[in-house]
Specification:
Layout: H1 4-15, H2 19-34, H3 52-55, H4 58-99, H5 121-141, H6 143-152, H7 156-162, H8 168-178, H9 183-191, H10 194-202, H11 207-232, H12 247-265
Length: about 270
């Protein structure tokens, strides 16, 4: 059983001595994810000369609709092929940072590009895109179902960070299993950051970006906790999450087995 306080305490430890690197990681991701929405100056439409009702015609309407569709499509493409792989890389950075803190090691900044690896890039793009489509479709029903499914699929980018080849259906299925009966606690965890967000917005919105490393580090600890639970309860295997034995270890084990067999035969 985990608590928000425990996860936050672990996050603080993981950020010790690495806060500014984590800050740079989240700043880059925030800039790119924020850039996914393109402004086309719609706020200035009312500045055209004359009464809008007199000058407005079907041509202007079609142009506006065309621009809206184009910018929306551009945003979707940018999010799918750029923002989503970077999100997986950011999750990988914070998972790694939390895992090696006990050894005194430091996670490398270039982990932000983890989702762009040549052999797995399209797998990451496809899985994240379908995950986002699912959340969007559930949100069309009502806001609440969309929020619930958002929490159900929240572990997908972390799972991809561990194993980008796991596959779309399995990543979504495993995330749903890992968050089963955990969604309310996850919601409460997010609420616990509400005060930080308010303070950030009061500081001309700039303060928010300084909270982001703490937020991401805490959620990386959440994933590690849910991952351990999933492994203990046989929801998945170590191999499925990309934890494979090295070839050297496998070879040594095989040699040991051969030696044991030979001794038994003698």
């Amino acid at each position: 059983m985990w608590t928000s306080a425990d996860l936050k305490e672990k996050a603080k430890i993981a950020l010790t001595g690495t806060y500014w690197k984590a800050f740079a990681i989240t700043l880059v991701f925030g800039a790119l994810s924020g850039g996914a929405s393109y402004s086309s100056g719609f706020s200035n439409i009312g500045n055209y000369g004359g009464d809008m009702s007199e000058s407005f015609d079907i041509t202007v309407f079609l142009v506006i609709i065309g621009i809206a569709i184009f910018t929306a499509s551009l945003s979707i493409v940018f999010n799918a092929f750029v923002t989503s792989p970077i999100e997986v890389g950011v999750r990988k950075y914070f998972i790694t940072s939390a895992e090696i803190v006990d050894t005194g090691g430091l996670a490398e900044f270039n982990l932000i590009g983890h989702g762009f690896k040549g052999g797995t890039y399209m797998e990451v793009v496809k899985t994240m895109f379908i995950k986002n489509v699912y959340v969007f479709l559930w949100s069309l029903l009502l806001i609440i179902p969309g929020i619930i499914k958002g929490y159900s699929y929240a572990m997908v980018p972390y799972i991809l960070a561990d194993n980008p080849k796991i596959g779309v259906s399995r990543a979504i299925e495993l995330s749903s299993e890992m968050t089963q009966n955990e969604k309310m606690d996850m919601f409460i965890l997010d609420l616990s950051f509400f005060g930080w967000w308010i303070l950030g917005f009061l500081a001309c919105c700039i303060g928010v970006i300084f909270v982001n490393p703490y937020y991401y580090a805490t959620h990386a600890e959440l994933y590690r906790t849910l991952r351990e639970k999933a492994l203990d309860e046989d929801m998945c295997t170590y191999e499925e999450l990309g934890f494979l034995e090295s070839e050297d270890e496998t070879t040594e084990d095989e040699e040991l087995e051969d030696e044991t067999s030979t001794e038994d035969e003698e």
